[in-house]
Amino acid sequence: MPRQTKSEIDAEILDCAAGIFARHGFARTSLQQIADAVKYSKAGLLHHYPSKKALYEAVLDKYEAQSHGHIAAIQQLPPGIERDRALIENAVDFASDWPGLAALAQQLGREESDDPRFVGLGLQLFGALGIDLANPDIERMVRSFSALSGANFSARLAVTMNRERECRDHIVAAAMAALGHEGEPRPTP
């Protein structure tokens, strides 16, 4: 088995740590829990990240960078079904590739809701969804967040069952239906 690169090791640590932070919160998560989960000694983990706070900040930075990239990509599309599909597909792929970060994303309101980075991300997400906060379409808002949270949860569940590939199109279709695009043609691969 080939050795992992530093970036692969960091990605594994960050995603695993994110999942543990999502489950227990920052205050109730210990470095030892994370070290055990990634099969490192606590000293080995501290070699990569000098403190729990530094690791947590690295997790949040990774989530923020990923989110900015996804939002920027979909904002290039005009509002409508194609933008909705791109948003949902990005969410499903993100949750499949980064299940720990995706779990943390659903928990951010619990502890970090006042962090300006995440308030800004939330506002960008509303904009990407075509939701005007000054005069929101409540149905669109509810459908959007139901679709995104359902897609996130379903994709993470598919990962735990090792069925992310075979479930992907079904998850996307269900989320698109939640957005009101049921029966819309699927793009050809």
Structure description:
It is a single chain. The radius of gyration is 18 Å and the shape is globular. The chain contains 9 helices and no strands. It has one domain: Tetracycline Repressor, domain 2 (Orthogonal Bundle), CATH 1.10.357. The protein is mainly alpha-helical and 189 residues long. The mean pLDDT is 88.
Give the arrangement of secondary structure elements.
Blueprint: H1 6-24, H2 31-37, H3 42-48, H4 52-75, H5 81-97, H6 99-111, H7 116-128, H8 138-160, H9 164-178
Care to give the gist of this entry?
With 189 residues, the protein is mainly α. The protein contains nine helices and no strands.
Question: Keywords, please?
Answer:
single chain, 189 residues, mainly alpha, Tetracycline Repressor, domain 2
From the N-terminal CA to the C-terminal CA, the straight-line distance is 32 Å
The secondary-structure class comes to mainly alpha
By DSSP, the count of extended strands is 0
Oligomer: single chain
Listing every helix as H and every strand as E from the N terminus to the C terminus, the arrangement reads: HHHHHHHHH
Number of individual domains? 1
CATH secondary-structure class: Mainly Alpha
- For CATH, the homologous superfamily is named as Tetracycline Repressor, domain 2
Continuous helix count: 9
Main sheet specs: none
Examine the coordinates and then state which fold CATH places here, giving the name of the CATH topology.
Tetracycline Repressor, domain 2
Q: Give the C-alpha Rg.
A: 18 Å
**Form type:** globular
CATH architecture type: Orthogonal Bundle
- Helix percent reads over 70%
Q: Beta-sheet strand percentage?
A: under 5%
**pLDDT averaged over residues:** 88
Low-confidence region ranges: none
